[in-house]
Design the sequence.
């Protein structure tokens, strides 16, 4: 799944480590989500979106899910 | 975080018990000089497994004690232990059941070592193969997820 996490993180000058610490996960998981290797759970997607003060749809791209 | 702290304290107690058990097993083998154990290699394995368990327990106890003293390290450990991706990888590689089964097999092997070398070897080899397969699957998923 495509996400805007990397872009939002860069805008806010946040490292993967810092974001992981804030949302209660590991740096490796953030890397996997950013590269699209892993799809975050609803809870983690909510935590990440809330951290950026955005809705889940604004951070995660659900267009591929809609097509399926 | 308080809940995680108490979980860590419980884990420290568990690993201390494991350490004591390993010391008892190693000590028993040393004192009796492996009396009752037919094969020398079986005796060596039992001493080795006792030492391995003791070292692993010591490392875990030290890691948990260090984390308890530092809030940042505790948070990192909490995130690492509750990471959903790792949880998924563990599930896909058959953990923790595979680990439990292998540990029980090794325990059975230690006991069987006193009676039958063939049963001992079979159990140890099965446990090792099982753990190796689990590790390979885990590494594969870590790379792809």
Sequence:
């Amino acid at each position: 799944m495509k996400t805007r996490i990397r872009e939002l993180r860069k805008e806010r000058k946040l490292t993967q480590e810092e974001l992981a610490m804030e949302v209660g996960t590991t740096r490796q998981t953030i890397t996997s989500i950013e590269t699209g290797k892993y799809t975050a759970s609803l809870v983690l997607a909510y935590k990440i979106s809330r951290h950026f003060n955005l809705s889940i749809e604004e951070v995660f791209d659900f267009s591929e899910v809609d097509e399926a | 975080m308080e809940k995680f702290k108490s979980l860590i304290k419980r884990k420290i107690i568990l690993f201390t018990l494991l350490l004591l058990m390993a010391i008892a097993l190693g000590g028993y083998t040393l004192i009796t000089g492996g009396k009752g154990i037919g094969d020398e290699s079986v005796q060596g394995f039992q001493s080795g497994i006792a030492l391995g368990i003791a070292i692993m327990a010591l490392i875990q106890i030290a890691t948990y004690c260090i984390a308890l003293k530092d809030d940042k390290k505790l948070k990192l450990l909490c995130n690492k232990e509750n990471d959903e991706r790792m949880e998924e990888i563990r599930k896909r590689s058959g953990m923790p059941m595979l680990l439990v089964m292998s540990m029980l097999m090794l325990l059975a092997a230690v006991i069987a070592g006193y009676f039958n070398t063939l049963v001992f070897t079979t159990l140890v080899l099965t446990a090792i193969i099982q753990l190796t397969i689990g590790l390979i699957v885990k590494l594969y998923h870590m790379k792809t997820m």
